[in-house]
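Appendix B, example 12.
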Amino acid sequence: MDPMASRSTAKPSTRAKSSTAKKNAQPAAESTPSKSIHLKPGDGTPAVIASGELVVLTGLSGAGKLSALKAFEDLGFYAVDNLPLELIPQFADLVKSSRDITRAVLGVDVREGQIEKFPAILQQVRKVLPTSVVYLEASTDVLVRRYSETRRPHPLRRDELVTDSIAAERKRMETIRNVADVLLDTSKFNVHELRAHINAQFSRTEGEQTLLISTMSFGFKNGVPAEADLVFDVRFLPNPHFIQEFRPLTGRDATVAKYVMDFPQTKEFLDRTTDMLEFLLPHYVKEGKSYLTIAFGCTGGQHRSVAMAEEIKKRLTHAGYRAKVSHRDMPR
């Protein structure tokens, strides 16, 4: 059941909560020279993809699981949907020993009757091969609209109001959501943007650095991103919003970026943050973490946070990490 699958022509809202962002038509900001850093992925040796890899794809009904599953298949994953939870450990053993299957994805949804057992099963599977959990969700309003457009009933409680079924599903799926490695809100995605996001996170080549880092800007007035692993509040920096000529611009404009970067506290913040990441990232890689979202927040998500996310992404890329940037609340 995937109401999102029929919405390939849907247009995203001007405010995207996802960590995938469209390219802005404005030129990228020219920042001040970055501090010279020596970030090394792991111990400096090229990362090699494990002989087996498993992704558990799950989440709320209508959030796009079927579309995401097809995207994984296109990336070469062996896909299985709705495999009973008790069979997942055996499937993991199969993937590990198989010469033909090196990457697999399993779809799990609310129809599974033993969801409360999932954390223990996940712990068992992770002893066999690297496993990550991707949880798709969306706002209630968006899910209701998707069900209305497809005219299909909710799979959990077909004889109740859709809103009641969604609320019940959220509560039931909380056990899985709490152990997810990636929380992906698809409220502002259409099918093509969801596919692009999956491709960006899971498309790899042999010997490529496996940790994907997303630097994200956001506005605190719209809430902290649920997917953020590290959150930095940059509201201590001078606000370009109070300069009339900067109000319609964003932190990607060179003049705004220069204004923000020229303050001594900005340089100190960037250098201290870089030092912290220089310490943290190799440990994340060593522990097998595949995704890291670093979020920078200001009041509206238009100027300061945008400039910081762009600069840190630039430094990480220069250091050899796979990094991308997105701006959740920046005006398009």
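The chain has a mean pLDDT of 82. Strands lie at 53-59, 78-81, 103-107, 131-137, 182-185, 212-219, 230-233, 291-298, 322-327.
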